[in-house]
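If your schedule permits, I should be very grateful for your opinion on a structural question. What I wish to show you is a protein chain and, alongside it, a tokenised description of its three-dimensional fold. Would you kindly read the sequence against the tokens and tell me how you understand this chain to fold? Here, with my thanks, is the record as I have it:

===
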Amino acid sequence: MSAPILAMPERLDRTSALAVHESILAALETGEGDLRLDFGGVGRADAIGVAAILEAFRETRRRGRRLRLLNVAERHRRLFAFLRVDGVLADEPGPAPRERLLGRIGGWWMGVRHSAVEHAALHVDAVLYTFVAPFRGRGLKAAHFWHQLTGIGAGAVGIVAMVSFLIGLIMALQAALVLKDFGAVIYVANMVGVTMTRELGPLLTAVILAARTGSSIAAELGTMVVTEEVDALRVMDVEPRRFLVAPRFAALAVALPCLATLSDAAGIAGGFAVATVGLGIGFEHYWIQTVTGLHVSDLVTGLVKSFVFANVIAIVSCHEGLAIRGGPEEVGRATTRAVVTSIILVIVSDFVFTTLFYFLG
């Protein structure tokens, strides 16, 4: 016998909630097997109507039966998700079919491929709106750019400088422990200077901005998606990637190299503090050793890396924010994914560029 189907009224709200609940209980008394509710005719629904469905769902479970919802519109799904009762929409989990290894690998590869294509498309659009569109009269607005640059750049100066200074202190102390056995403590200046400019300055800054700025971007855009502000922009014929992504992309591309340079200076200053106070190296000797140990290629390498890191953080964070599907709880998950993915990709790209610059001399 097929499961009975009960059509829901056009208005599933406080005026019909009691009647709907009673009709479901009556169907449970007279029928057998699963009970299916047809939402195809529901036009308006509110929290009280959803509460009636939820209570009926619980009563059905207590009787050892299942309640399934059919033809649920997307706006009603969002309401269920907003009220955090979207578990009602899912069927009871049955025994999961065993998936073959090749199927898992194929599914993973298709997901990676799809994500890579979406990130690449977003990156292309961001570059076009930032560097090409201004010459065609459709560039990003200066006010939006400066607003983002202020929050991303100026707001991170303090934490970047403090963390980099402390890292410089630690590096100098650790290097001195090894170099003093060889009577080469003066080379602490070389180690701190080169390591900060080529590696740690850009990498530390990128990790800090991924956690600080990347999470903020993902949360902002995700909230706009959930509250349908992004859809409103499309209705007004405003391209979200131009209005939302391009200013953040451009601000990060400018701010991260500048903050990386600040990080280099703060780390070298930390090494100088240890060298002059704890190791007995004079200011002039330390300065000369740092200047002679650094080359223009060291600074260029760090700046190139920091620009690439800025691209990675901006694209990943914007993509995770705009790709949200569901209720407010998805904003937190998207923020976590943005930070974790950004940091991983920053480290991977750092390895790639370090290897490339090493073999290029």
